[in-house]
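[step 3/7] fold_predict: job queued, chain A
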Amino acid sequence: MNTFIKSALTVVALMASVNNVCAVVEIKEPTAKNDVDQSVIYNSVSRKFSPEVTLDIVQEIFGHNLDTNDTTLRTLLLAIGMDHTTNESPNFKSSIGIPFIVDRGPGYWVKRLNAGDHEIEVLVNNALLLLFTKEVIPKAKETAFQLMEAAADRGYWPASFYVAENNLVKYLAAEISESSPLTNEMKSSSIQIIAKDTMSRYNECAKMGFAPCQYRIGFWLVGTKKTLKDGLEVLRLSINTTMKDSRYSGVLDDALVLAAREIVFNGEEAGLDFVVREEYTKLIKHQLSARSQDIEKAKLSQQSN
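[step 4/7] structure written:
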């Protein structure tokens, strides 16, 4: 399938054939109007009710496991929170997330699952219990993945992100690093199937305006000359999404800088003029400067203590 861009239209469909994997990202031209309605997540934030829970009860169930250094789990919690407060989410009325697990108790959600209830909120909340509980449960991660996969297949995009991230780490990262640097051809048909499924899942959350998924697709596409231009456009969209939404602050700083570097170093080859590339050079300098200042503030704070 050939790559094409309908740049004159409001919706741009980026279709790229990478290792026989089709990537489809629906984005909009960077006009003033579209900057307003580009992201479903960003522009439909609500003040939806969530149960108030106390820290001691949370720790009774999860210990300190919610304060995790696992990037995938941290980003999953961010995605769930964003979806929960999005008016246009098909799951707007669902009770998904840590506050609902704590409010009703783990037993409530486990009982529903054991009774054969496969509603998305039941699948996801039981998966979260398995991923974050302080209890030692055999094959917890494997079972959680199966529950998330079931929720993703029913249209829950945060679960699609989780499944895609796990597939990327478990199956694709090593395969890509070992493949031909010129063609990036996948070695086996089974890996190609997983790659296609992974890209499809990233697209689901990217179209909702979730920046981490947009970055994944962008970095995937810039991996080959054939899709370099499309990849840089997706990375520009990703940066725009990140900078418009304060909820990404401190979460995607590294991804933003890496994306900007791709644009600066490869933009000329893709037809981006010097003025555009220079904007991203300034963005990189600003981000690195801000990070340096944060580090200095942290050092001063430690010294004062």
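[step 5/7] annotate
DSSP finds 14 helices and two strands in the chain.
The first helix runs from residue 32 to 37.
exit 0
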